[in-house]
Fold this sequence. Notes:
Elements: E1 18-19, H1 22-32, E2 39-43, H2 49-57, E3 60-65, H3 70-77, E4 85-89, E5 107-112, H4 118-126, E6 132-140, H5 141-148, H6 158-166, E7 167-175, E8 180-181, E9 188-195, H7 206-216, H8 224-227, H9 234-239, H10 253-270
Parallel strand pairs: 2-3, 2-5, 3-4, 5-6
Antiparallel strand pairs: 1-8, 6-9, 7-9
Helix pairs in contact: 1-2, 4-6, 5-6, 7-10
Amino acid sequence: MSKKPPMHKARKRFGQNFLHDAGIIQRIIRSIAPKPSDHLVEIGPGLGAITEELLSEAGALDAIELDRDLIPVLRTKFFRYEDNFRIHEADALKFDFRTLQTDERPLRVVGNLPYNISTPLIFHLLSFTDLVQDMHFMLQKEVVERLAAQPGEEHYGRLGIMAQYYCQVDKLFIVPPGAFQPAPKVDSAIVRLTPHQALPIQARNVDCLQDVVRTAFNQRRKTLRNNLKPLIDGPTLESLGIDPQLRPERLSLAEFVRIADSISENDQEDS
């Protein structure tokens, strides 16, 4: 018989909204399809609604939890899994996920990410894609739309470009507010990020690409000529086959890589 965990109230400062809808939980688990050979990592397990289902299927699970008051709740609830369940009291934004890989198995990352840290956390996780098999996240619907957006679409920008540089992005399904306690004011969605085994487009210098994309979208309504003036001039953009009068949301990932490669090449020649 399992021990009864103490009650815990969701905290606004941690952006906590606890998932309780059994049908949605099962749909998430089917999307992840955990196996006994998997090494799973769950970010922000909360009260363990998804954790319980994952642990019953997976070979090992590391949980990253910032709220120290939830640690005893989780330890009590899952005490029978102590051989393959580890809890790390840590801020996922600063956590070194490389410390979790103890064998040849890639990590499979899962998380119901708080809205207030979802974008910086995804950028942090993109730096670990070489050791990740896939990532399944519950996010604000708008964030998922930004991740999957294509050139010319309303939500296209820095987050989607860099996520798609590293990963295949698949929108899975919408999760209504009523699936959570307390209910958020917006819809959520499940997204799958699958790191490319080989990058379809590779930049000479990824830091330069990051800088170009960040600079280009600093002021979305301005043209590339104006936004990228500190990095590259209009005639050079034209020589790359890119119209400097375009706004940044019109450019593809490949075109951003072309700009970054030109800047990297020039910097190398000047050094």
